[in-house]
Structures are given as structure tokens and as C-alpha cells.
Amino acid sequence: MVCWALRRVGQVRARLARRDSGVCRGHEHQPLGPRPAPGAPRSTVELLGKSYPQDDYSNLTRKVLSKVGRNLHNQPQHPLWLLKERVKQHFYARYTGRAGTPLFSVYDDLSPVVTTWQNFDSLLIPADHPSRKKGDNYYLNATHMLRAHTSAHQWDLLRAGLDAFLVVGDVYRRDQIDAQHYPVFHQLEAVRLFSRHQLFAGIKDGENLQLFEQSSRSAHKQETHTLEATKLVEFDLKQTLTRLMTHIFGDGLDIRWVDCYFPFTHPSFEMEINFHGEWLEVLGCGVMEQQLVNSAGAQDRIGWAFGLGLERVAMILYDIPDIRLFWSEDERFLKQFRVQDINQKVTFQPLSKYPAVINDISFWLPRENYTENDFYDLVRTIGGDLVEKVDLIDKFEHPKTHRTSHCYRITYRHMERTLSQKEVGGIHHAVQEAAVQQLGVEGRF
Asked: What is the mean pLDDT of residues 106-110?
């Protein structure tokens, strides 16, 4: 049985391996090189040993490109690695097959480059869904991108015949700049499918219950699921997650469930925990859309899925105040997580808080094709991790021209030394020039 399980994982990995404030006004930011003239050959992006031709969708910045392959979740003694290992240990110990082998297989080294079909279409995300926007994602080109969630591998793993698995990896999204957001973060996802026999085993009169029916969709179930099957899957999901969070945070944890919407699950929930008197959302989950399960070849099964952000949980668990710290190579940070036992309690001891240097920038927006994420990405590319946060502090619309101006406050802070105004001034000036030249704004500096 052990040999079969190892062979099965190897076959799946082999199968998966075989698959596998921008520039001119009115155009998306093209930081990897100038936009070629009409008819000129397009440039390519070299990433993880493969070449990807650039096109009008390409918006991958050098800053983000430098993070690909770092795989913080696989670096021993890193806080994200510690958290991943604790989750793995819990699932390995709690959920086993008949021969005592782990029920859940783990995939933590899948390539972050996926197709847009994998990232969106396989998960039933509509073509016009806002989550597909170039302003929110990092595209290599129109057909390939850096995954925005580990769910991008869900369909492939189901198609490979897996019924229970964890996926851990780095994911990429264009977003605001503050202590909780970074263009690269890490997710852990789990999926479990049940056959009719597995779901109803031990249930009184379970032999008479069915997984599927043809009815109407409601707030509580899908049109193809029986209410009994939905409630049992939902119960197993919530019980699994309650056990996991209790394992991570300890006994006596207050948990509540909030109804929400995801395109790939229904019903869907967000889990919130009460930590130090504050309700915090830690993950999303739900009963998998049967259309997705069917398309992957598991028509006789029903299942659940959940996904959590490792940084989000680690910041709560270890009391880490700034998401940039996960990328720090400062020994004062890293040594705090070198523990003998992965379950050992760790409370982060803050490094010296160096003073911030604050500069404002104001400009008139171009009349079209401006998004705030373009500006945030530009600031990140130029300022790097010296930028602690960017706040939009003022908007103004000219009463005659109806043009709009924005004023942003950029907070610069180094986590390991004091910055000078002269040093920051050079960076800030470069941001101003780039905003004019690349985003098409007009300065009000």
C-alpha cells in the first residue's frame, strides 16, 4: 500500500510536469522592456527555464520576477515553512488510509507559472469576472500568468485521480501597499472528495441516501446535490478546519462562520477566529461546485475545498507586524524561528523600529486607462521594500475641466537601518519622473 501511494504520487508529479505611476499613456505598465514598434519582433521573458513571448497583456515587473523561485515555504526554519510543516503534520497524523498511510498527499513545488485556463476557466470563473483584470494580476502574456491562487492546480490534480491533497505555493497579485499586502504571498489549499460509501458510512440508514438529485439551487445547496450530502460535506469541512485551527492556535479558540461567495464553491464560507479579542478572517472554504468536479472526471464524488494565506495566519500566530519581514535576511529575524520542535511556541520579538521618512506626491490623472495598482506597482518597482505603505490621502476634481488629481502619501522605512531624507528624496524623485513618463500623469509636485 505504501509503495502504491508513493508510485501514485510520482505518476501525478510526472503528469503535472508534462503540462505545464506602466509605459505610454493608455497602455499597461511594461517594466521588462520598451514596447516594440508595430511589426517589430516581440521580446520574451525567461522564467524557470522557459521562454514566454510578451504581448499586450505582459505586465510582470522586475521586482516581482526576482521573487519567483524563492519558495519561502520550503526554506527550513523560515516562519512560513514552520507553519506549513505544522499543517502537514496535523493532516498526516489525523487523516490516514486503511494501511495507516497519509490520506492527503502534499504538493509544495509546483511551478507558479500557469495558464489563464488553469487560473480562471478551470475554476468556473466567468470571462468578465473582475478578478481577471490585468490591474489585479501578473501576466507573462495573454495565455500565461503567475498564479493568483493555488487553486489553479486543483483541476489537474483531480483529473490525475487524487481524492485528497494539499497544495502549498507562492501566489502573485497586484495590490495596495501596506503592512498586510505584498505582491507575492503564500497559500495552502486542501481538497477532499467523498464517494457515496465514504460519506454515508456510519450514518443510520445511510445505504438509502444519495449524493445527487435534480432539483433547484438554493442558498444552502447546489441543484445537483441532495441536502443530506451537502450537510454532511459541510459538517466534515467545518470539523476539519476547527481541528486544524485548534491545533495551530490552541484549545479554547472562538470560531465563527460567515456566508460568502466564491465561483468554485457553493455554499461558501469564511472562517473567522477571535484572537486577543478581535475577530480575524483566516480562510475561505466551501462545498466544491459539482460542475468543476465532473469536468475533472470525478462524477461519482462530492467534495470540499479550503484555502488559507500562510502570511495571514503566521502574522497572527507569531505576532509579526509587517509582511515585508518574511522576505528579510536579517539574522535577528530569522534566528527567532530556529526551533527544535516545529510546535514550539514562538512570539516574534520586534526589531528596532527605525524612523519613517514620509513624502507626498500629487498629479493629474490621465483621462483614461489609469488604475491605482499601476501606480502601486511602479512605486514597488522603484522603491522596493523601502516602501512601507502608500495612502491615497486626497482626491480633487477640477470644477471646469473635470480632471481628477490624486495625492498619495508614501511612507519609506528600512527595517534594518535609518534612512536619510536625501536617500529617500532620490527614490521619490524617480517615482515622480516614472509616473509622468510611464503612466501618463501630469505632475502637481
From this structure: 98
